[in-house]
Amino acid sequence: MYDAVVLGSGVVGLSIALELQSRGIKVAIVARDIADDSNSIGFASPWAGCNWFSFANGLSDPASEWDTITYKKLDKVARERPDLCEKVPVWDVFERKKRKEEEPWYTDVVDDYKDLTASPSSPLPGNKPYAHYFRTWILHAPKYTKYLGQKARSLGIPIIQHRISSLDEAYNLPPIGKVNLVINATGLGSRSLVGVEDEKVYPARGQTVLVKAPWVRECIFHVEGFFAPGEDADETAKAPPQAAYMIPRPGPEGHVVLGGHYRTNDWSTNTDLVEAERILKDCYNLCPRLAGPNGKSWKDIEVVAHNVGLRPAREGGARLELERRVIGQQGSTNLIPGGVSAGRKVGVVHAYGVGGAGFQNSLGLAENASDLAVQYLKSASSNKARL
Amino acid sequence: MQSFLGGDKGGSSNPLKQIGQREGADNSLFKDRFAPGPSSQPSSSAFRPHPQITHQPPSSSSSALHATPHPFNLSHLSAALSQPQVGPQARILPASIDHPQFNAQWEQARSNGHSPIPFPQNQIQARPPIQQQSGWSNDFQSFSQGKGKGRAVEHEQPQPQSQVNPYQNGYSGYTPHYGGGFQPMYGAMMSQPQLQQQPQSQMDNQALNQKEMDDLFARAEEDYKAASEKTQSQTEQDQDTDGIQEIGSDPKGDLEAVWESLKPEAERLNKLAEWEKDFSQFTNDEDDLFDTLNESLNRSDVGQRNLDQQLHLDRDVGGLAVPDGLDQYNGIARDDGVPQSRGYDYASNNVHDSTELAALWTEANRIVTEGGSLTQAGLMLESFVRRSTAQDRQQINVSATEAWSLLGRVHAMDEKEEPAMRAFEEGRKSLVGEGVRGKEGVAGEMLTNLAISYVNESLDLAALTVLHQYLSLVHPAHAGQAPSKTSLGDTNSPWALHESMAERFLSLAREQWQNTQSVDPNVQVGLGTLYYMMDNYEEARGCWTNALGEKPDDYLLWNRLGATLANGGNSEEAVDAYRRALELKPTFTRAIFNLGVACLNIGVYKESAEHLLAALSLHSNQSQSDRDDDSVLSSDSWSIWSTLRRALVALNMNQLAGNAEPGADLNVFRQAGFEF
């Protein structure tokens, strides 16, 4: 009954499913963690402090295309759902003056980009000497994820909560039936899903503090050196350079997500209060207003929750790729649950490993992943004549 | 191929269609698949050029068309695409060949060891301009369109002499076109003969007038004789004139070429030793040839009909969709790979339930042999198998096995694999109950057909099990051990079961040849199915052509040949085989579906969509009957819808694609410019 199954209902899986549906392709979503269930720790999407702040490494990075598309498309989301998506100013502040060639690739993509230098009359956040300024999108991550899930359901896309252990199973799940195409948006799951087993996938632990600060409606980032941890650093002693950021959430609650934690290959989902304190201090230094009009120190910031999420990162960046494969090539077919017919030639579009860029990648990634899906669906290998 | 793709200039021309027209091949019946029939509206659609006056284009360009007379190779025809058309209204409308003649020639050819010759040299038809069509024709046209069934059934008749002298125009009006002459309308018109002298006045006749048909047929044959004499002499006169010979010979060439393509295979029949050689080569070449695993495990879900309902239910609940059964689905796989059948799902309120059984059986068989709505035939047979007692069947000398087998075949032809499998499975039960004695032929046909259904569903182990059952029932000396999941576990090669089964079929074929110098089509079909499963399309093709050597009019075999060519990467060649199947059986839904798939793979998406819509329109007749269970209907057609969506997505018609699902109104697609 379906043309494809999407594995994963994070922001990437949901966005791809919706994009495919909009192109007339019938999809079903199968996921271990469901978008609405925002308490699932196995799930990165709802925990993100969420804005458009591209990590793409220049225009040669495919993520720059995804991010560009997403930046443009979020305009429509903001018009439909201002409670989920809104455009705010962002300052990316730093100590060391950047060379011209270090200018971000997206200066022409975003609104109002400016390269700023502090002066006594116009200081920059955290009293840093330099900043890149532009206007960007913020998203309410848990609500946006839920919204995507509801939209999918309202369009008739079933979201089926089910844990699978191998990619092969996805081609013949009883409630869905036989499909020849699977979209693998399993994120970290791609590390262990039999048939994918991508060892380049690793968790990048994130921890955020959700605070109430209705008077802060801008993003401030201090992530100098954050994305390029030194190769020769004393790894046992040092975490990556400490970063801090704050991202307000759209909506009436006046919530702001404070973050700056990025620890690779740490699977712990327990809150690290020492790290939480560090984040609060650093963010307070960037923006004392977080503590309110009468706040005296970081201790006056009103904490709402501590959250931990595992970013589904991948060495070399996200994988977006169409793979043609044959069912039952791994090990004994007897191990595959259910009635999977070995030997069937099928396709999979891999779309995982976005790390912390899931939201800003999502709409562009969905477009490109759907192009690959269509390419497969109209190819001869997926359209067999019948004897 | 390049010019194929390049031929679509701004969507204003349709490469395949032009091929169909320019090829000058025998496609008169098929033209509703490739070229507009006279019932097409003279619309301005770029995709259906006006089918008006046709004449023989005495252009030298035409000779180029036939320089490479390989029968299944359309690629040489692609050259034609770049050539200017002779005139806006001109096209070649080749004649058709009637069965008796074809058979006779085939037989003759076979006995002579060379190709059949005596087809009329001049088979170019001049179709009367639309204005000259009979009132019947117009009525038919409005009727069929009014019923929302634009897919033209060939309704060309032997033209009354008074209308146009066919011979003067080179019209070889000898034939009541296959299907054409006898082709009942789908649906309501199903029992009406179309070969009528005053058709309009007889439109309301419900009963098939066999006598009249016979008379007309006889007359048509006379016409043919006269036509061939005339055209032959005419052709001799015309031999020297430019271009005519090539044009004239091509329609013959179509069949001749088909025969040529079979000949090498036929010759191979005399060299069974070569089979062994091939086979050993084939088994030694595992790395290349067996890139497909073949185990099929338990499929408890095959046969789940209420998937749709399930999911709708989930939507209604609005909560997380956690369908029942998901957790219980790691069930114990059946060792023989055959999916658990929950029995046959009958349509409720079958309109045929009040018809007398013997008449029902006769009529269903008539439709299957002569043509008509397969969906209706399926309903008739359903009613028959459900209501008839052993005594009833005995009176008309029909076994339950035979009835189930025919029902399964009708469903498979109608591109409804799942009901087909269920019917065949019921037939398999009956066969065990009734015993195989005296039913070897039926058993062979049914079991090979069932194996093929399983292969289509990638249930290889089930297919092997059924093929083994065929051997053990009909040729027990060759049966050997039954394949099973367990036995598969004993071997290192996942293909061991296929190889072993193929070996048994080969040794059987060898023995049959040594003993009786004959080829058993069922054995060839079994063997072809095995090769096909192993992706050995070359060998499979050989088996189909061997079987076609015995049964040249078997449209199922032509379709299988086509599907094998297509899945082996030769969609263009496959098209010719499908066309042959459709010439023999214009309402052969599966061949129409396959044609749509071939067009999709060739990259002519609009054409593809139109074929698929035509296939769906054959199914949609069903809804006019009293099948009230939508989910049954839906699951019957879903694979066609799914392929249609792909064609529409390829055309960037996303919204339309989104609407392309079971239950959709086909008129939406007509309004979008698709003609079918």
Automatic annotation (TrEMBL), chain A:
Q: What is the lineage of its organism?
A: Eukaryota, Fungi, Dikarya, Basidiomycota, Agaricomycotina
Q: Which top-rank group of organisms is this from? A: Eukaryota
Q: Show where the FAD dependent oxidoreductase domain sits.
A: 3-371
Which Gene3D superfamilies would you find in this protein's record? D-Amino Acid Oxidase, subunit A, domain 2, NAD(P)-binding Rossmann-like Domain
Q: Which UniProt keywords apply?
A: FAD, Flavoprotein, Oxidoreductase
What's the cofactor? FAD
Pfam families of this UniProt entry? DAO
**Family (UniProt):** Belongs to the DAMOX/DASOX family.
Chain residues that bind D-dopa: 245, 311, 356
Q: Which GO terms describe its molecular function?
A: D-amino-acid oxidase activity; FAD binding
Protein name (Swiss-Prot/TrEMBL): FAD dependent oxidoreductase domain-containing protein
User: InterPro entries from the xrefs?
Assistant: D-amino_acid_oxidase_CS, DAO, FAD-dep_OxRdtase
What GO cellular component entries does it have? Answer: cytoplasm
A Gene Ontology biological process in which this protein takes part is: D-amino acid catabolic process
| Binding-site positions, FAD | 186
UniProtKB/TrEMBL annotation, chain B:
A GO BP entry = protein import into peroxisome matrix, docking
Membrane spanning segments where?
A: none
Residue ranges, compositional bias (Low complexity): 36-45
GO MF terms held by the record: peroxisome matrix targeting signal-1 binding
Q: Where in the cell is it found?
A: Cytoplasm
TPR repeat ranges?
Answer: 521-554, 555-588
Q: Where is the composition biased (Basic and acidic residues)?
A: 23-34
Q: Cite the record's Polar residues compositional bias ranges.
A: 53-65, 131-145
Q: Where is this region: Disordered?
A: 1-71, 131-166, 224-252
Q: Which SMART domains match?
A: TPR (SM00028)
Keywords assigned: Cytoplasm, Repeat, TPR repeat
* GO CC entries: cytosol; peroxisomal membrane
Identify the Gene3D superfamilies for this entry: Tetratricopeptide repeat domain (1.25.40.10)
Q: Which domain of life is it from?
A: Eukaryota
Entry's InterPro entries?
PEX5/PEX5L, TPR-like_helical_dom_sf, TPR_rpt
Pfam families in the cross-refs: TPR_16
Annotated family:
Belongs to the peroxisomal targeting signal receptor family.
Its recorded name reads Uncharacterized protein
Q: Whose protein is this, by species?
A: Kwoniella bestiolae CBS 10118
